Amino acid sequence: MALARAHSVAIVGVEGHLIEVEADIAQGLPMTILIGLPDTALREARDRIRAAIVNSGESWPQQKITVGLSPASLPKRGSGFDLAIAVAIMTANNALPLSAPAGKMFLAELGLDGRLRPVPGVLPAVITAEPCVDTVVVAAENAAEARLVPDVRVVAADSLAEVAIWLRGGPAPTPAPSPAPSPRPRGPGGKPVRARAVLDLADVLGQSEARMAAEICAAGGHNLSLLGPPGAGKTMLAERLPTILPRLDAAAALEVTSIHSVAGTLVPGTGLVAEPPFCAPHHTASKAAIVGGGSGLIRPGAASLAHRGVLFLDEAPEFGRDVLDALRQPLEAGEVVIARQAMTARFPARFTLVLAANPCPCARAATPGGAACECSPAARRRYLGRLSGPLLDRVDVKITLEPVNRREMLYDRKHAEPSAVVAGRVAAARDRAARRLAGTPWRLNAEIPGAELRRAFPPEQGALKSLDRAMELGQVSARGADKIVRVAWSVADLAGKPCPGAGEIDVAIALWLGVTK
């Protein structure tokens, strides 16, 4: 009879939980029992691990093996526990020294031949294990991701046999070198395929008010709605919004990288995600694809993949009404909470939402001199009515785009500001906001709660007269009033003013109502 322990990590949302893996070998019929709320993939680990141990040249105990995963009340999902279970069984079978797994965390899937395979979620797993262990053992493909966490020794291996030799006191594993990057793809005639052009805000010709609105949204983290006919520049503007956002700081980059690690979208070998992400799901996407979920393993959705970046919903009225309304919670709370019978998963989701819509189903309602619109007034109301009032009430800036004429195009080809110039103003505005909000948990104007906004950051005296009048007329809700003041602060930050006055409040009201022209 023998008992051994090893450690691994279970991921729930983007949070890790340290798991103690216990293996007990006792007299009885040869069988392997796995306890501790394992899912189907984890139950199948019994056969995978047995084959991996045998094919690695080790012996499999012909006795009763009981493997317990603690805490037992936490559901365990996925194949990342394979290596820890194998090490615990081999230690209990006296194939490894009893003290060998101490101070180590094991996270990898096993192939039937004993190879170590990568798993998602390594970065948050290592962050969780860092205070408790001094060494983490992962597959070679996960090594670069694991090393993003400082002060933790990372041991990367290609196979279970290498890990066993190291645990017996042998040399540390030396993974095979990664394959050389694939050559640049070539098109017809053998010519290299050109890389995607670099996006720049100067590409958006005309639409000076829309570019100004995008700059304000970038400075304060505000949500944006774009209404206009096809070809007016809605998609171009949304795609270029990340180019004027500042790079992510270390804490935000670690948070964003952890989300992409859990989602399995992190490119192997890359470092921290330092650029603000841009996510543009198709209008046929389901609610789970947008906000996250899943029947088995809970995965983050587009709202979380766009954390600290931009979530762009093109043809927004074509999305399902329930899908759009599901965004109301993350827009308010900055996170997605997904509740299941056995667990609750939380995913950060603080993003800038950009909605783009045509004025009507045929998209010709705002095209002067073109083909006549075929939609009835009722059809137009029904089409735009798919964007619910509570959702639009959470959108700070609303802009209507008109078709660009040739004169505007010729002028902007020479005079439109590039992204680098606008990004400089945005960075300066964010620095002003950060200094003002120092000592608080917020860094952007859009993050300040309404009560704190009214108490600690009021505008100039007498500046709210026009806002009070708009509320009396029923044009602005209480939530909208707070958003208008937040936008006014961003306008003031861009202008270098210490506090918003009546002019900034009027600009914010016009942007809220969508009547800038």
What does this structure look like?
- It is a single chain.
- The protein has a 5-stranded parallel beta sheet with strand order 11-12-15-10-16. It has a 4-stranded mixed beta sheet with strand order 1-2-4-3.
- The protein is an alpha/beta fold.
- α7 packs across α20 (478-495).
- The chain has helices at residues 40-43, 45-55, 82-92, 122-129, 143-146, 160-167, 208-220, 234-240, 250-263, 287-291, 302-305, 321-325, 328-333, 377-384, 389-392, 406-415, 419-436, 450-456, 465-472, 478-495, 502-513; strands at residues 2-12, 15-26, 31-35, 64-70, 104-107, 109-110, 116-117, 135-139, 153-157, 224-227, 278-279, 310-313, 335-339, 344-348, 352-357, 397-400.
- Mean pLDDT is 90; it is low at 181-189 and 191-196.
- The protein has 21 helices and 16 strands.
- The chain folds into 3 domains: 2-167, Ribosomal Protein S5, domain 2; 208-221 and 405-517, no CATH class; 223-395, Rossmann fold (3-Layer(aba) Sandwich).
